[in-house]
Design goal:
Elements (H helix, E strand, L loop, with lengths): L1 E5 L8 E5 L9 E11 L1 H8 L13 E9 L10 E5 L9 E5 L3 E3 L6 H19 L12 E4 L5 H12 L3 E6 L2 H9 L4 E4 L5 H8 L5 E6 L6 H6 L1 E9 L12 H6 L4 E3 L3 H21 L7 E6 L3 H9 L6 E5 L1
Parallel strand pairs: 8-9, 8-11, 9-10, 11-12, 12-13, 14-15
Antiparallel strand pairs: 1-2, 3-4, 3-6, 3-15, 4-5, 5-7
Helix pairs in contact: 2-3, 2-8
């Protein structure tokens, strides 16, 4: 099989197209022939070494395709349409052999490209909105802030939050991205290139702040996110697009209003709850309440360009690789 491999940590140029042997599945595994592969910021963390993993490695955590071989005791058959958001890298390849418990059957109504663009991002939004609760829970009418609202996770998050009846304040860089997130349902957009995010949130909430901030940006937004919260508010830090957040001054949480901070991960949630999480995602997409925007498509061999575009904040919506 052809695959993208990282033999040393570094920039996008370390992504090399190589030929690797396709591995036969073990007793509880399947081998998937990919039709589409998701591209996500977490892939860059493994490439740079921010998230440690043995080298050489094949990046990528997300894919969709058809089962071409199934081991004994795997509850899938050859020909099944499947999709996954895996607990580790390995998807930037024509095939992937993976534990059966990490994949789900894909409904016929959802195409491979849509599935590859939504599994990791959509399951992330599911646990953020439905499983990561502030004090007292989230209820229709509550106001939230979603950073990077025009990104792949952000566009799904904005739509799903609106389906739950939440009031969404989004942030993005530039008028085009703000317009895109508004088109997908954001009630208010803040262009952080030209506006003071905290001052605008304070203005929009009448000085109250918001119940939750969802922050995948990290270093550049962390302190501002805390300042957007109402007393007892929750900062959900779930990404590091601008770099890891700074060390946390715990006493600042008391000074700013008895705040909460959490750093959840998708793998913790899917390890125990994947079937119901996938069910929720498939239902909200099939209903039309959440539309998946596959805005960038790259050949597998162009994975380095996909990473440059992603890290350069040139992308909107979701990006996929096509084997």
């Amino acid at each position: 099989m052809r695959a993208i491999q990282v033999q040393r940590h570094g920039g996008p140029d370390v992504l090399e197209l190589v030929d690797l042997p396709a591995r036969d599945p073990g007793p509880h595994e399947v081998r998937i022939r990919h039709h589409a592969i998701g591209v996500n910021f977490i892939d860059t963390y493994f490439r740079t070494g921010l998230y440690p993993a043995p080298l050489p490695l094949v990046p990528g955590a997300e894919g969709a395709g058809v089962v071409e071989a199934a081991g004994a005791n795997a509850p899938f058959a050859v020909g099944d349409r499947v999709a996954y958001a895996a607990n580790g890298p390995g998807s930037y390849a024509e095939t992937r052999t993976i534990e059966a418990k990490q994949i789900v059957k894909l409904p016929d109504a959802i195409g491979f490209d849509i599935a590859a663009a939504m599994m990791l991002k959509g399951l992330t939004v599911q646990y953020l909105l439905l499983r990561t609760a502030p004090q007292g829970g989230l209820h229709a009418g509550d106001t939230i802030v979603w950073h990077a609202a025009a990104g792949g996770v952000g566009l799904i998050g904005v739509q799903w939050a609106k389906a739950l009846g939440l009031h969404v304040i989004g942030t993005a860089g530039g008028p085009d991205k703000c317009a895109l997130a508004t088109k997908h349902g954001a009630d208010h957009m803040i262009d952080y290139h030209h506006e003071d995010v905290v001052a605008r949130v304070v203005e929009l909430t009448g000085g109250k702040g918001v119940k939750v901030v969802y922050d995948s940006v990290g270093k550049d937004t962390f302190e501002r996110s805390l300042d957007c919260l109402a007393p007892f508010g929750l900062l959900v830090s779930f990404g590091n697009a601008s770099g890891p957040p700074p060390p946390l001054d715990v006493l600042a949480l008391s000074r700013k209003g008895s705040l909460y901070v959490t750093r959840p991960t998708l793998g913790t949630h899917t390890k125990e709850h994947l079937p119901e999480m996938a069910r929720d995602l498939f239902e909200v997409v099939a209903s039309g309440k959440v539309k998946i925007d596959v805005a960038q498509r790259y050949p597998l061999a162009d994975a380095a360009r996909a990473h440059r575009d992603l890290e350069g904040r040139k992308t909107v919506g979701a990006s996929i690789l096509e084997p």
